[in-house]
Write a structure and sequence with these properties.
It contains 11 helices and 13 strands. It is α/β, with parallel strands linked by helices. The protein is elongated, with a radius of gyration of 48 Å. A 5-stranded mixed β-barrel has the order 1-2-3-5-4. Strands 7-6-8-9-10 form a 5-stranded parallel sheet, with helices on both faces. Strands 11-12-13 form a 3-stranded antiparallel sheet, with no helix packed on it. α4 runs parallel beside α8 and α5 runs parallel beside α6. The mean pLDDT is 88. The chain folds into 4 domains: 95 residues, OB fold (Dihydrolipoamide Acetyltransferase, E2P) (Beta Barrel); 144 residues, Succinyl-CoA synthetase domains (Rossmann fold); 52 residues; 42 residues, no CATH class. α4 links the parallel β6 and β7. The longest helix has 50 residues.
C-alpha cells in the first residue's frame, strides 16, 4: 500500500483486469452517435435507458455485415472490452453484430408519426406552395451552425437580392423543441418572412429529436408561412419533414429550393440575351447585303462633300484659337517684364548700385538719423560690395 503507482501502471492494471475478465461478451443495446470513419472503421455508442458505452467495429469485421447500422437501431454484439490508455477510456471491440429489434427511439417516433398522421397533420391538401420570388427568407436554426453558413452562401450566390433573417434557436437538447416551436409561431405572428427554412446540420438520432417533437411538428403544420424542412443530411429524417410544405435533404438544398426561380429567371435572361444577339447579327448581315450595291468611291465622295466644310471650319477655329492664345501669352509676358522692372527699381540693391550705402551701429541697427549717433561711435558702412568700419568725429542734423 506504501508503493505509489504511476498513472500508466494503474491504467495497465485496469486494462489487464478488464480485458481478461471481459474477453468474450454479448451485449445488447441501441446504436447512437454512429460515426463511420474514412479509414473504414465504424465508431458508435451502445446505450439503454440507464447507461452508455463506446464501441468500435473495425473495417475487416464491418465489411462482413449484411445490413447498414443506423442510429436508433437495437443490436446485439459480440466482442471484448479494450482499454485505451492515452485517454483512460474503455470500449467494446465488436467482432459480430446482429439486429435485435426496433430501437426504443425509432419505435417512439413511429408511434408519434402514426398519431399525428391520423390527425391529418401530414395531409398533402394542407401543403402551401412556395412563393416564386420570395423577398425575405427566414431561417430558424442555430446562428453559429454550419447549416446557416451554407444557406447564406448559397442565397448570396444564387439570389443576392433576397433578404435573409436568422431567427435563432437551439437545435439540440431538452430546451430546443419549445424554443423552435416558439420561433415558428413568432415568425408567423410578426410576418417576418415569405418562406421559412427550419432545420440544422447532421447529427445522431438523439441530436435530431427536437425536430420530431410534437410541439414543433404542430407549429410547422399550423404555419401560414410556407416551411421548408431541412434537418440533417440526406439519410436523416425528422417528423417535421412530413408536416412541412416541402422537405429538403440538406440545409444547402433548402437554400437552392427557395432560390430556384431566381436561377431559372437568370437562365431565361441569358437565353433571351443569346436570341437577341442572334437577331442583331441577322439584321446586321441583312444591312450589309442592302449596302453592297452602292459604289464605294461614290460613297466616299458623298462623305467628303459632307465633311469638307466642317473640316475647314474646324481648321479656322483652330487657327483663331492659336492666335488668341499667342496674343494672351505676349500680353502676360509684357506685364511680367514691367512688374519685374518696378520690383527691381524698388529694391535696396538697385539703390546701392547707384552709390548709396547702408549704415549701421555696432549692434547692427540701421542709422536713419544723425541724431541717433554721437562722436566716437563705431559705425559699419555697407556699400554694394564689401564693408567699411568708421568712427564718428562729428554728427550734424
Amino acid at each position: 500500500m506504501n508503493k505509489h503507482l504511476t498513472v500508466s501502471e494503474l491504467t495497465e492494471q485496469i486494462r489487464q483486469n478488464l480485458e481478461n475478465s471481459f474477453s468474450y461478451i454479448f451485449v445488447e443495446g441501441e446504436i447512437s452517435n454512429l460515426r463511420p470513419a474514412s479509414s473504414g472503421h465504424l465508431y458508435f455508442n451502445l446505450k439503454d435507458s440507464g447507461a452508455k458505452i463506446d464501441a468500435v467495429m473495425f473495417k475487416n469485421k464491418f465489411k462482413t455485415l449484411s445490413f447498414d447500422p443506423k442510429d436508433g437501431m437495437l443490436v446485439r454484439v459480440r466482442g471484448n472490452l479494450s482499454v485505451y490508455a492515452p485517454r483512460g477510456t474503455y470500449s467494446i471491440v465488436c467482432e459480430e453484430m446482429e439486429i435485435a429489434g426496433t430501437g426504443v427511439i425509432l419505435a417512439m417516433l413511429e408511434k408519434r408519426k402514426q398519431k399525428l398522421a391520423a390527425e391529418g397533420l401530414f395531409d398533402s391538401e394542407k401543403k402551401i406552395s412556395l412563393p416564386r420570388f420570395p423577398s425575405v427568407v427566414g431561417v430558424v436554426s442555430s446562428p453559429t451552425g454550419a447549416a446557416v453558413r451554407d444557406i447564406l452562401n448559397i442565397l448570396q450566390r444564387r439570389a443576392s437580392a433576397v433578404k435573409v433573417i436568422i431567427i435563432p434557436a437551439p437545435v439540440q437538447g431538452d430546451d430546443a423543441a419549445p424554443i423552435i416551436a416558439a420561433r415558428i409561431r413568432q415568425a408567423n405572428e410578426w410576418k417576418l418572412a415569405d418562406v421559412l427554412i427550419v432545420g440544422r446540420g447532421g447529427g445522431s438520432l438523439e441530436d435530431l429529436l427536437p425536430f420530431s417533437d410534437e410541439e414543433v411538428v404542430r407549429a410547422v403544420a399550423d404555419s401560414e408561412i410556407p416551411i421548408v424542412s431541412a434537418v440533417g443530411h440526406e439519410i436523416d429524417w425528422a417528423l417535421s419533414d412530413f408536416a412541412a410544405d416541402l422537405r429538403a435533404p440538406t440545409p444547402s438544398a433548402a437554400a437552392e429550393l427557395v432560390s430556384e426561380n431566381f436561377s431559372a429567371i437568370e437562365d431565361s435572361i441569358l437565353s433571351i440575351r443569346r436570341n437577341l444577339h442572334s437577331v442583331m447579327r441577322t439584321r446586321l448581315e441583312k444591312a450589309r447585303l442592302l449596302l453592297k450595291p452602292f459604289d464605294i468611291h461614290d460613297m466616299e465622295y458623298r462623305f467628303r462633300a459632307i465633311l469638307q466644310p466642317r473640316l475647314i471650319r474646324f481648321d479656322d477655329a483652330k487657327e483663331e484659337l492659336i492666335n488668341s492664345v499667342s496674343n494672351k501669352i505676349s500680353e502676360f509676358k509684357n506685364r511680367i517684364r514691367l512688374s519685374s522692372e518696378v520690383i527691381k527699381a524698388g529694391s535696396p540693391l538697385a539703390a546701392m548700385e547707384r552709390g548709396f550705402s547702408l549704415v549701421t551701429d555696432s549692434e547692427g541697427k540701421i542709422i536713419l538719423s544723425a541724431a541717433k549717433i554721437k562722436k566716437g561711435d563705431k559705425l559699419k558702412i555697407r556699400p554694394l560690395k564689401g564693408e567699411i568700419e568708421a568712427i564718428v568725429n562729428s554728427a550734424q542734423i
